[in-house]
Amino acid sequence: MWGVYLVGIIAVLAAVGVVAARQPVHSAISLILNILALALLYLMLSAEFLAAAQVIVYAGAIMVLFLFVVTLLTAGKEEQEAPEILSGQRWWAGGLSVAIGLVLVLILAQTPSSGLGPAGPVGTLNALGAALWGRGFPYLLAVAMMLLTAALGVLVLNRPERPSRSSEPGSER
Amino acid sequence: MVYLLPKILVAGGALMSLLATLGLPRWRNGAFWVALVLLLAAGVDAAVLWQAEGNLSLLVAGSMIADPFSSLVDLLVVAAGVSSLLLSWNGDRYGPEFPALVAVAVLGMMMVAEAGNLIWLFLGVEVLSLPLYVLAASERTALGGEAGLKYLLLGAFSSGILLFGMALLYGATGTTLFVRYPNLPLGTGFGLYGVGFLLVLVGLGFKVAMVPFHMWVPDVYEGSPTPVTNLMAFGTKVGAAAAILRLVAYGFYPQAQWWSPLIGYLAVLTMIVGNLLALPQRDLKRLLAYSGIGHAGFLLVGIAAHNFLGSMAAVFYLVPYGLAAIGAFALIRLVEGNGEGVQLDDLEGLAYAHPWAAALFIVVMLSLAGIPLTAGFIGKFYLLQAALVANQTGLAVGLVVGTLVGLAAYLRPLQRMFARSRSERVQAFRWSWAGGAVLVVAACGTLFLGVYPSPMMHIVDQSANFFWLR
Fold first, then answer.
1. Smallest CA–CA separation between B16 and chain A, in Å?
2. Is residue A168 part of a domain?
3. A24 is in which domain, residue-wise?
4. Second label for A11, Cα 20 to 30 Å away, from A167, B152, B265, B315?
5. CB contact (8 A) between residue B8 and residue A105
6. pLDDT tens digit string along B4-60?
């Protein structure tokens, strides 16, 4: 029982650290601590897979992404788009994404159309996979659309300003 | 699977239009064309499904309800998306990702209306909102940034409330499938279940712009690019109103004796506050924002009446409101040209310089006000009838007072159009085929529905035929 409190306190302190730190990198490191504490909590709930995924995905992959963003934001923005080194990579990416989309539609077509069954044992890899790629597949797709939109939003909002949109009559107020 | 086809087409529209940006810069409007074609295909498919469904109500994949109501809402939100694409038909200005974001928002609106499961409802709200946050801020104006930030903060706040309510509902019932709630032994009391329902209602009230959760609307509508405002005003309202109707119709009808008066009071408040605040506005978009708040109140009248006529009138009212809103935003888009926003003074002289544009605008504004021979009158008439049949005189009185106040607000821009002097904007007025087409279709549809509403009534009749009323 005391372990839960201890880990909980660590998690909360680390979370406070995320918002209170003045350097973005310190925030990121506090976030790693917070994520590790959460993974411990999952372990105590005997959700081993979630704990492992938490460490690998969040503390690993996503934190690296965060650190990338931090370095990119502080590096100063490039005005010009970099020239493409691999020729035709856009078209390859386009073709591959169409193929993946078709596979996802095929999986969606096989989603059981009956109601939500009773929830199986949670926390194991099998149960999670069955839930996400079986009856819960539409949810997974919806979340995918959401994340795609968020990524697109970052692109749109971080784009350098287009010159045509200023000093129009009536725009000053 | 076949019931998911409209959603798959819309999602495909978003993804394919992103792929079409590969063709830049040679194929300039490619993304717009792809999104437009796939949205139209989704609309056609929804119409076909509507015909095939009859009185069917089917639970697909345990979370979505496939019935004529979802198909009708699909059609309406596709119309909202298509009109927004047409109003933004200039890829250079709004950026190549614009159509993809619009398609994702339309997908979210379809999801909330068909949800039979709290998870799907929440995911729908998020899929609807995220692209709109981005779109609201997609133009780098000071007002646009303010709009995006306000929308994001209040939207996140409302999503939190919604999610908290859903968690309480799950705690009280043990299932997220809200269509099963009436079968559970919960009684008609309040309890944890009631608190959860209230919080969910508050979360959806933010989206539908119900008073007192309307504060974000004017600033966001004013600061967003006009096609985006159009999508918010029509699409989001349709989606959120449909979600509320679906939620109370399928999940909470045994508890009607306490939520019906609550929604009723809020409806009266929304109608009167929205229309009153529309009166002093000088910016046309802000005026339409407050008018949108007022119209959310009108929609809620149908829901609060809690009878067959009420749900029918609420669903029907979405059509006149949507047509009128599209038409008004199309005129704003035409008048604003390359600039942003239209003050009432900018309309001066429009009636003499461009009488056709002015005439079409008068039609849609009179429809918003509820003048006979326009669709708005028919819609308000049915709502009034529903309120009286439900023996809720207060609702009826509120509706009439709100309409009267609104009339004054809608006549002010019309009066400006007949000024003798001509503003700079009117002198620079240029027709564009896309904006003109939207305006013409909206005004003609408004007149048609106002004169001959029975085909639409029949469609709505079939669609809003919820089982608890039979």
1. 8
2. no
3. 1-75
4. B152
5. yes
6. 889 999 999 999 998 888 877 777 788 899 999 999 999 999 999 998 877 677 777
